[in-house]
Amino acid sequence: MRILGFLLRKEFLQILRNPSVIYIVFQSLIIQMLILPFAANFEMKNINLSIVDNDHSTYSQQLINKITSSGYFILTDYSPHYPQALKAIEDNKADLIVEIPEGFERDLVKNQKTDIFLSVNAISGTKGGLAASYTSSIITDFNADIRETLIQSSRFNSLPELEIVPENWFNPYMNYRLYMVPGILEQINVSPIKKMDFILSKLIPFWIIGMIVLTLGLIIAYIVYDIVPLGSYFTIYVFGAIYLVAMLGFGLLISTYSDTQQQSQFISFFFTLIFNMLCGLYTPISSMPQWAQDMAIFNPLRYFVEVMRDVVLKGSQFSDLLYQLIAIISFAVIFNVWAVIIKKGLDK
Amino acid sequence: MKQFRAFIKKEFFHIFRDWRTLLLLIGIPVAQITILGFAVTDEIKNSEIAIFDEANDATSQNLEGRFRASKYFHVVDMFHSTSQIDEAFRKGTVKLVVVFPKNLREDLMHGNKAQIQLVADASDPNMATIIAGYASAIIMDYQLEITDNIPYVIETKLRMLYNPELKGAYNFVPGVMGMVLMLICAMMTAVSIVREKELGTMEVLLVSPLKPFMIIVAKAVPFMVLSLVNVAIILLLSVYALNVPIMGSTTLLVFESFLFIIASLALGMVISTLANTQQTAMMMSIVILMVPTMMLSGYIYPIENMPVILQWVSHIVPAKWYVNIVKAVMIKGLGIESVIKENIILLGFIVLLTAITVYRFKIRLE
C-alpha cells in the first residue's frame, strides 16, 4: 500500500510535469462540447436557392415570395434558364433549383393542373432529402391556398382531411453528448508494467482525470445548454466510474499487446474509431445490418451512450438500465483480468 | 541524392518492421468504408414503434395494417394507456408511438377532419424527424387514396441530382478520403519525426551529411507512397463494393489527391516542430487535425448549418477544400476548371506550412 502511494505520487508528478497531455484532453473536451452540438444540428436553415421563373406571372411571384419568406432558404441565384442555374449548383452557389415552367398560372387555372420542377443537389442524401421535403411542403401549402381562392368554400370543405400532429417528447435537442470520454482511451499509453501496484498506479491517475472530464462535461452541459439530467447524477457517476475502469482495462490490454508506444496509440485510435461509428450516436443500432448489430454487442461505448442518453433525457433509473450495468461491469472485469493474465505471462 | 535515397529506404524499413501499424494504416480506410457503407446509413429500417389505438375502427385498422406492412417500421407493441408511452420511451423499447384518437373514422367521414398523433422519442432529434416523416408519408398515402378528384393541382416534379438513390456513400467517400489521407500523412509523419526527438536519435540523424530539412522530407516520403496506395484502395472499394462511380477524370482525381497529400505532410511536419513527445504529437494531431476534419469538412455535418464563426473556421481546414474537389471531380464529374479556387488554396497551404517548418525546425538540440 505504501509502495502504491509512492508510485501514485510519481505518476501524478510525471503527468503534471508534462501538462500538454492534460491541456489537450481538456481542450478537446471543451472544443467538442461547444462545437459538436452546433455542428450536429441537421435542421436545415440556410439552404441556398436558385430560382428559374419562366412564367413571370402573379402566381409564380407569389410562390417565390412564399418560398423565400419561409426562413429555410437564401436566394443566392436568379437564373434566366435551367443550364445557368445548374452551373450555380456545380459551383456550390446553390443547393436547390426551383424551376417554374412557362404557362404555370394559365395551366393551373384553365387545365386545373400544372407542374413545377425541383432539382436538388443530393450528394448528401439527408441534406438533399430535407431540402426537397421543405420545398414540397411549402408548395403543397401554396397549392391549398390557391385552391381555396379558386373554388367555392362549400366544395372545398367536402374533402376529408387527416391532420397529422407530430409531437416530440423529451429534450427536443440532444445537445448533450459525452463524446469525448472515449478520448481518454488514447491517454493510456502505458509503458511496461510489472506488478499489480504498478498497474494501479498507472490507471488511477487516468481514472481520476476521466472523472474530472465527466464532471466538466456535465458542468458545461448545465451552463451552456441548460441541460440538467432528468435522472440522478449518482446514476451517471456510478456508470461513468465503471465505464472508465472498463476503458482503462482495454487500454492496458492494448499496451500489453503492442511493442511500441506508437503502435499502442495507433491501435487504440483504430478501436476508438470503430467504437464511435458503431455506438448508435450517428445511426441507431437497430437499423444496422445484423453483422454490425452483432459487432455492436461488444462495444462498451454503445452501452455508455445509451445510459447517458436515457439518464439525462428520460430520467431512467438503475432498474431500467440493468442490462447496460451488467454489460459494462462484464467489460471492466474481462478487460482487466485478461490484461493482468497476459502481463503475468510476459513477466515470467 | 544517393544519401537521400538511403534515408528513404531506412524509413521504409521502419514502417515494414512495424507490421501491426502498417496493417492498421491499410485497415482503417477499409473498416471505415465497410462500416459507413453498410452499417451506418441514413436509411431507417425496422424502427420499433407502438400503436395506441383508441378508435378501433375500420380506418385505424387499415392504417395499422399499413404500418405493419412497411419495411421502415416494426410494430412491437399495442398500447392501451398514455402512461405506457412514457414507460416505453424511458426503457427505450420504442421510438415512435402512433395515436389514433376516439371516433377517428366518424370524424374523418362526417366531420371531414381527424387528427392522428405521432409521438416521437426526440432524444435523438434527427432520428425522430426522419421517422416521423416516414410515418406521415404512410398516413398521407392513405389520405390520397380515400380522396379523389382534387381540383387545381400543382404537381411537384423532383429531380435528385448526382445521387438519385440518395445513397449515403456519395457523401462519405470524399469525406473518408480526406480523413484517411490526413490521418496517415499528418499524424504518422508528425509522430515518427517526434519519435526520433524523444528517443534521442535525432542527434544521430542531424550529424549525417544530409540537410536537416531533407531528413524530414525523407521521413514523409514513405507515408506519401502509403497514402497513394490508400487512395487506390478507397477508390476501388467505392467503385466496386459501394457502386459509387468516378464520374470525372481518374487522373485528375489522383493528381488532386497527391496535392492534398503534400499539404497534409506539410501539416505533419509543422506539428513535429511543435511537439516534443510522441504522446503530445498524437494528441495534437487528433485535436488540431482529426476533430476539425471530421466535423468541419462537411463530411458528417453540413457546414451551412453551423454558426458563422464555425463556418469561418472551416475555411482553414485543408480537408474541406479537398472534400470539395473530390465531390466536384468524382461525383459531379466536373473538370479542373471548376476547382481552380480550391487548387490555389491547397497550394497556398503547402507554401505556408513548408515555410513554417523550415523556420521552426531547430538544427541544434537544447
Explain what this protein looks like in three dimensions:
The complex is a heterodimer of chains A (348) and B (366). Chain A is of the alpha/beta class and 348 residues long. Chain A folds into 2 domains: 2-40 and 177-347, no CATH class; 47-156, 3-Layer(aba) Sandwich (abc type-2 transporter like fold), CATH 3.40.1710. Chain A has helices spanning 2-17, 20-39, 58-68, 82-90, 104-110, 125-150, 153-156, 196-225, 233-257, 261-277, 290-296, 300-314, 322-347, and strands spanning 47-53, 73-78, 96-100, 113-121, 161-169. In chain A, α1 (2-17) crosses α8 (196-225), α2 packs parallel to α8 (196-225) and α9 packs antiparallel against α12 (300-314). Chain A is elongated. Chain B has 366 residues and is an alpha/beta fold. Helices cover 66% and strands 10% of the residues of chain B. Chain B has 14 helices and 5 strands. Chain B has helices spanning 2-17, 19-39, 58-69, 82-91, 104-111, 125-146, 169-199, 202-206, 212-240, 250-274, 278-296, 308-314, 318-331, 340-360, and strands spanning 47-53, 73-79, 96-100, 113-121, 153-161. The relative contact order of chain B is 0.11. Classes of the chains: A alpha/beta (348), B alpha/beta (366). The interface between A and B is large, with 114 and 109 residues.
What helical percentage do the residues of chain B reach? Answer: 55-70%
Largest sheet of chain A: 4 strands, mixed
Count structural domains of chain B.
Answer: 2
Globular, elongated, flat, extended or rod-shaped: what is the shape of chain A? elongated
What is the strand content of chain B? 5-15%
- In the sheet with the most strands of chain A, the strands line up as 2-1-3-4
| Topology of chain A as a string of helices (H) and strands (E) | HHEHEHEHEHHEHHHHHH
> Looking at the chains present, what oligomeric state does this protein adopt?
heterodimer
List unreliable stretches of 5+ residues of chain A: 170-194
Chain-averaged pLDDT of chain B: 83
Low-confidence stretches of chain B: none
Overall outline of chain B:
elongated
How far the N terminus sits from the C terminus of chain A, by CA atoms, comes to 24 Å
If helices are DSSP runs of H or I spanning 4 or more residues, what is the number of helices of chain A? 13
Strand fraction of chain A equals 5-15%
Rg of chain A, alpha carbons: 28 Å
Backbone structural class of chain B: alpha/beta
